[in-house]
């Protein structure tokens, strides 16, 4: 009888342990640096009103790569003692070029406003370079040793450089360069599953119409991190970004071009995390 009671007590205690969540050994990181490799699928539609005046899918028509693998770096800093105030910084870039005999005519207006045609069969060389600089401030409105929920305000700065060159009945050698600074509002949710495993997620959005300018951003990310050592760990994440900019003037600060850019990517991020 005593053996049965003892066994029952052990069984109940073991069952209760399954429902007790382990506490974290330390607080949320004060500082971290993420060094990663981003493998993405990219899609770009571009229309430049001044100079080129073309509207094209640069991957399909001009042969630019649809898959890009790039180096990516990010950092965060919780700059108050309660660790609720946080600053995030991130940078990465896309560098793509292509050379293709186009299958369809490209119509455009030159800088004198005269319509020209790059005929099908012409060999066209092109490039599309894009840097993405991101800064965000967030405040954790709920935080304990397992959950960190925050609201954020941020800024994307995206210098874009595009060029097109062709030789044939019409010689073309045109480039366009502009910078798109777009603010964002967002939410962030981080969960400590165990002292070694973390789940990170976030969402940022922006939409604005001012005069002849329309801009929008939708950015999402999720990641799982494994932190087996005190100051070093690893992460695997999925990121997606959709950017739309349509401008026919200088109604928005920093946007000084006439045209439209539709750019989106989605991909996997593998990274090493250094944290304190």
Describe this structure in words.
With 276 residues, this protein is mostly beta strands. The chain has one domain (22-275): OMPT-like (Lipocalin, Beta Barrel). 8% of the residues lie in helices and 66% in strands. The protein has two helices and 13 strands; from the N terminus they run αββαβββββββββββ. The protein has helices at 2-17, 58-62; strands at residues 31-48, 55-57, 67-78, 85-101, 106-109, 115-118, 123-143, 147-166, 172-192, 197-210, 213-226, 232-248, 258-275. The strands form two sheets. A ten-stranded antiparallel barrel has the order 1-3-4-7-8-9-10-11-12-13. The longest helix has 16 residues, at 2-17. The protein starts with a helix and ends with a strand.
- Sheet having the most strands: 10 strands, antiparallel, barrel
Residue share in β-strands: over 45%
- Could you name the CATH topology? Lipocalin
- Number of separate structural domains: 1
- Over the alpha carbons, how many angstroms does the gyration radius reach? 25 Å
Basic shape? elongated
Derived from helix and strand composition plus strand pairing, the structural class reads mainly beta
Number-wise, the strands total 13
Mean pLDDT: 84
CATH superfamily: OMPT-like
Tally of DSSP helical segments: 2
CATH architecture: Beta Barrel
Distance between the termini: 53 Å
Main sheet: which strands, in order across?
A: 1-3-4-7-8-9-10-11-12-13
Low-pLDDT residue spans: 10-25
The top-level CATH class is: Mainly Beta
